[in-house]
Amino acid sequence: xxxxxxKALLTxxxxxxxxxxxxxxxxHYSLRxxxxxxxxxxxxxxxxxLGSMRCKSSAIEKYIFLNALLERxxxxxxxxxxxxxxxxxxxxxxxxxxxxxxxxxxxxxxxxGFYITPEDRGEIATILKNWPEEDVRVIVxxxxxxxxxxxxxxxxxMGIPIGKVALYVAxxxxxxxxxxxxxxxxxxxxxxxxEDPLYLGYPYSRITGEAYHxxxxxxxxxxxxxxxxxxxxxxxxxxxxxFEFLDRYSRQVRxxxxxxxxxxxxxxxxxxxxxxxxxxxxxxxxxxxxGTGSAACGAAELMVxxxxxxxxxxxQAQKRLWFIDRKGLVVSKNENIRPRIKxxxxxxxxCSFVDAIRNIRPDVLIGATGVAGTFNEAVVRExxxxxxxxxxxxxxxxxxxxxxxxxxxxxxSDGRAVFASGSPFDAVQYGNKLxxxxxxxxxxxxxxxxxxxxxxxxxxxxxxxxxxAAEVLANIVTEQEIDMGAIYPALTRVRKASQAIAVSVCQVxxxxxxxxxxxxxxxxxxxxxxxxxxxx
Length: 536
Known about the structure:
- There is one protein chain.
- The protein is an alpha/beta fold.
- The protein is built from 24 helices and 14 strands.
- A seven-stranded mixed sheet has the order 8-7-6-9-10-11-14, with helices on both faces. Strands 1-3-2-4-5 form a five-stranded parallel sheet, sandwiched between helices. It has a two-stranded antiparallel sheet with strand order 12-13.
- About 50% of the residues are buried.
């Protein structure tokens, strides 16, 4: 414990235990008289937290309450989140974080994270020294241009890195002192934000071209200088920038893009798990995507690797994957096809979405559009007509942007759908069966990747790590969960999943010659020893 005493200790969020300080501690740290008489346990404090939180009338009020707790008592916040993750995580991250980002400037209380603007050009490495922690291992960075399905939210997008950091800590046990949320505040093209008198960001249109790219390049180089052991997670960048930065930096520094690679791995894991319900083999599947953005394209590219691992050539693997855009099936004769989509634009007659399902008979339908209701009744019923158990994965979040709800998927498929979504849904009773749909949440993947990179000191983060993570996650799903229609494990086991994924990342790092530290034989115990425990 740092040499803090009295009020300074009580108000330090990382060190305080509040009313849980013992009699002896109160004497030693000059706390007598500064606390009520009773010495409470952390469990009693959690009970008080939950009682206060549940009295709030809306999700955003609960978000504000929990954020205030984090600022006041870090360990109590994370202990509460870990022990009640199914209740708390949707408030800390999706779907509530979407509303929190929209209202970020209006609910702002206390600075969190680090902000970089165009006015910091040439001095990013210098100002990074202002961050109070030296041993940063995880950086989550966004430029706020494509926040969830909500679009350009500028500096309000800082809610995303803050939320992701909370998931790194709660889901994988990365020490909060080693995590850093960063906003590249390069302006916003959202006029209503710029005109909002309470908006806190750089109040100009987004910088573009060389000015933008050189700032990002300076940022990446500055991180290598200031925090050489840190991984960089790119988050919620526009699709062109997301792929550009991944291609540019992933062979140079330890970095990844969660919207591309994290989403890809969690989606692939769900497809692996779904085969246990449908009775089909992964190698036999045809998979169709609605949407051609970074999430869908990243998932398709990882699935190509998965099909290749099953014995396919790359071209054979690509032929198992199909894309739908606003005009219908993406085929080779279409014009203006995005370069990364071209390998999946097959020689095939143009047709509508529903006709494509009828003709191609996909086993799996994945939505990554950010547009609510795009899996309408006709779409779901057609999937049910060509499959005994249609696999329908609606990735878009927040909940208001999902392609269809769990209830719709079960009703329109006569209870035969295997459904998962990016946002959480309650259990659904259909006939005499209770379905408990699983959330395809990236929190199952990226925290474990980060922990594994930390543990192995991997110099780079590779596709093989995400492919391995998908396999590990799928294998964690129990038979009981499968029986209830869930293709992901319960969130209550997310830390165990992250630990297992981290071990697999270490194994990949060793196999690919990327581990820059000597790892012990017992990787499981080693990884476990690195995980932060927020108990007092």
